[in-house]
Amino acid sequence: MERSTARRARKNTGRVTLSDLAALIGVTKVTVSRALNTPELVSVNTLERVRAAVQQTGYTPDLIAGSLASNRSRLIVALIPAMAGTVFQETVEALTTGLAETGYQLLIGQSGYDESREDALIDAILGRRPAGIVLTGVVHSQHARQKLRESGIPVVETWDITREPIDMLVGFSHEKVGKAAAQHLLAQGVKRAAVIAPGDRRSQVRTQAFLKAFAKGAATDPAVAIPVVTIPSPANMGDGRRGLASLLDEHADIEGIFCGADILALGALIEARARGLDIPRELRVVGYGDLNFAKDTDPPLTTIRIDGTRIGKLAASLLVDRIQEGEVDQRVVDVGFKLIERETS
């Protein structure tokens, strides 16, 4: 009889509802809801019956209906440029853990590196009314910024810096990263440098800052451009090999190279070794990201470390405080970065 009722529920509605469970067990919807959400308020016998019915029917709670009824969503949406982008993994893991500890679930979306899609993606997110939004980078579309502000949904922009965040921000200066890479190579005595970098906006900010700082520090002729190879985002190891090959074929006197991603630096190291170059005596290499393989390359890679875990933890904390308290003590947090000096420079 109980199984027949469960089958009819699935056939008529497509899913087992709270009402179906209540009818199946012979109790009220309120009792079932208490058993699922506040089990300490029901008897052990009732709790066991509800759990048995849930297991039998495969019932799953309707979180959307629940959030509408309470007017509070427990869903946080985060947009990252690429699922395969390991540079963001630490942030996603810390964000997931930090939100889960306070009862929020994280939904991750892939935004890609094409900023022209920004408005459409943000419209899609706002239409679902999440409790909060985490964005990778600073939103530049004025239309999107206005809609986000008017939505009333707490927003944290990450992995970048701006004086005018939409709401909250946890990030660092890409301009300072590029400058730091240039100053490091200059300190190592490099007089002729080059760049291999992804083409996304944040990477290009680093590149332009590097070019400006290196040209100034090396006192080079302004008419002589520092060679740059730009790679479509997301980049891969082969791009690094081909990028360095192209640079060396045309500029054999290059002494140092700044790679806008560690995966490009890895490819560059492989190409340098294939050509018999001595790293760092003949070519110094600096990466960006300090990914998990950076310390294990041959030789170990000098790179710029971003504390992705701290970014994720702070973003989660700010969002939860903003959602639950309405205010936060600090709206903008600059986590900075660290140049990790190893044996490639």
Automatic annotation (TrEMBL):
Gene3D superfamilies attached to this UniProt entry: 3.40.50.2300, lambda repressor-like DNA-binding domains
GO molecular function per UniProt: DNA-binding transcription factor activity; transcription cis-regulatory region binding
Q: What is this protein called?
A: GntR family transcriptional regulator
Which UniProt keyword terms apply here?
A: DNA-binding, Transcription, Transcription regulation
Q: Which Pfam families match?
A: LacI (PF00356), Peripla_BP_3 (PF13377)
HTH lacI-type domain residues are 16-70
Sequence intervals crossing the membrane: none
